[in-house]
């Protein structure tokens, strides 16, 4: 009788100890969130950002849009980004370039009509696809850049024949700007320079 009581008592102590040990071993596993571990072979994608830096006038009828590709604020080198135009409500690629060590690249584009453009990165094994904010490029009108107040017209204005407002006589001011402003006379973008 005493032996049976001892056996039962020992069994209860053993069972209680085993349950406590199992609870301690399982507790950390249960407390971890389901997403804490990444399955082997999976690639964690980095959020990528394509930045439209600028689209300055280039030559008489063209523009030179500059794009920049970054991930986590750092430039990405050697990746192709595409310049796209919006036509008939759809975006389509016009041309592309490969980013340099600063994450930048530029192309020359001559719009046949005024329209919106954007940069696009198609993504890769490590980074998500992304697009820049859109920007508007106007069609250059037949090489006519400026009309002076006295009626004289200026065609094919470029940086090589650049003029400042101080070099233009008073009787020729204000200067009407047509489509683009290669001499940067129209500081307030109201369509008239040197006013």
Summarize the structure.
The chain is of the alpha+beta class and 195 residues long.
Structural class, judged by helices and strands?
alpha+beta
How many β-strand runs? Answer: 15
Please give the oligomerization state of what you see.
single chain
Compute the separation of the termini in Å: 116 Å
Order of helices and strands: HEEEEEEEEEEEEEEE
Radius of gyration: 33 Å
Strand content: 25-35%
Number of helices: 1
Helix content: 10-25%
Mean pLDDT: 78
Task: Give the tags.
4-stranded antiparallel sheet; 1 helix; 5-stranded antiparallel sheet; alpha+beta; elongated; 195 residues; single chain
Question: How would you describe the overall organization of this protein?
Answer:
- It is a single chain.
- The protein has 1 helix and 15 strands.
- With 195 residues, it is of the alpha+beta class.
- Strands 6, 7, 9, 10 and 11 form a 5-stranded antiparallel sheet that branches. Strands 1, 4, 5 and 8 form a 4-stranded antiparallel sheet that branches.
- A hairpin with a 2-residue loop joins strand 6 and strand 7.
- About 11% of the residues have low confidence.
What is the topology?
Elements lengths: L1 H30 L16 E7 L2 E2 L3 E2 L2 E6 L2 E2 L4 E8 L2 E9 L5 E3 L8 E7 L8 E2 L3 E3 L6 E4 L5 E3 L19 E3 L14 E2 L2
Antiparallel strand pairs: 1-4, 2-3, 4-5, 4-8, 6-7, 6-9, 9-10, 9-11, 12-13, 12-14, 14-15
